[in-house]
# Entry
Amino acid sequence: MTATDPGLRRSPGISYQELLDTDSHPVPEVLRLESPKYLGSADVNSERFYKREWHELEKERLWSRVWQMACREEHIPNPGDYIVYDICNKSYIVMRTSTGHIKSYVNACLHRGRQLKHFDGRCSEIRCAFHGFAWTNEGNLKEIPAGWDFEHVNPNEFNLPEVKVGTWAGFVFINPDAKAESLESFLGEIINQFERWDLGNRYVAAHVAKKLKCNWKIAQEAFSEAYHVNATHPQILKYLGDTNSQVDIWDNFSRVITPGGTPSPLLKYTVHEIDIMRAMLDTRVDEEVAMQIPEGKTAREMGAAAARERWRPLAGDMVDEWSDAEYLDAIDYTVFPNLHPWGAFNRIVYRFRPLGDNHKESLMECFFLSPFNGERPAPAAMQVLDFHEPWSSAEVLASLGKVFDQDVYNMERVQIGCETSVKPGVTLANYQESKIRWFHMLLDQWLGV
Ligand code: FES
Ligand SMILES: [Fe+2]
# Structure
């Protein structure tokens, strides 16, 4: 590569790695990794966002074969606990068996096909509500009412069909493809990269889902780059190094790290440290900023110090080992195809999927994974926001809700625009939007297109 190669161009201003050099604490190796990939500049066709054929291909070749997060382990802590995981027109039961293992079954009765479970719960057996065929929680046939009429059924061949299950970082994944590679092999290096942050040792403190009138990929892409911040979230530019984000691409996962407590390079004026802090604390112009910045200190360092003290009661003196970056930066990982666990201490995890079997509607979920002291608290119940209900109506999300609403404001318009456009594809930034290109390249491979 030469210096003029498009894949090497970067925003003016301090790079993410240079910013890490200023950290008041040692920076972990995982943040020092750099894996940029220039994946070409060709437009990505827009049909994938609105054509039913694409959705059908995704059902056949993606969702039926890929590892996908179904729930957290804590959603099914006790024997007999189960959740129903729906993806497009398919439904699966994820069950904690009597031995404490997790199994997943195709959610359909072997008699005449009724869906066996249609809400989450706890059971001592899996009994179909139609005619009463029953299976143990281990999936073995337990009873056929009036069994004399089913002499032709071999009980040994009438156990519930299972799908593959794997766990990582407290997440339970399923894969309907019996021939799929193991979850560990699929996830690869991300397992090591998250070791330090130990998401398994967190609990679901908040869980909010929102119905959206756009394809699931359009919704996901609104959270896959920081380039949109200047137009969509201008109120946070003073403390967000949007175009200085670092983008890293690996195999089945990628990340965008957007630094906090540092101003956007797009601002054409000097932003004073106190103004960075004012923006970080969402302080009105006629109010005093609650946190002062001593001589020689930066808003970034002060913001991290405050976050460190907020975490201390839960994490103890461990908090002194963590860098400013881990408190302030948006370390947004994506595991193909639809899971976004944030690294470090931001608590955020997103999941995106089609809403039911509709390719022009989607469900976006936001989880907060929080640390806890002593006994694990019960996971928060999912709050579902309908199409017309704003994210900001979910109080638990605090100021994040307002930011999400700004993102939603674009999504439906992107859906309509892509369908309307006479231009057959979307044009992506070479670096800042390379995570989106990575996703589509992988998707194309899965779909064989
Ligand atoms: S369909 Fe389930 S028992 Fe008949
Ligand atoms: Fe956004």
Remarks:
- Residues 109, 111-114, 128, 130-133 surround FE2/S2 (inorganic) cluster (ligand 1) (CB under 6 Å).
- The CA atoms of residues 269 and 308 lie 30 Å apart.
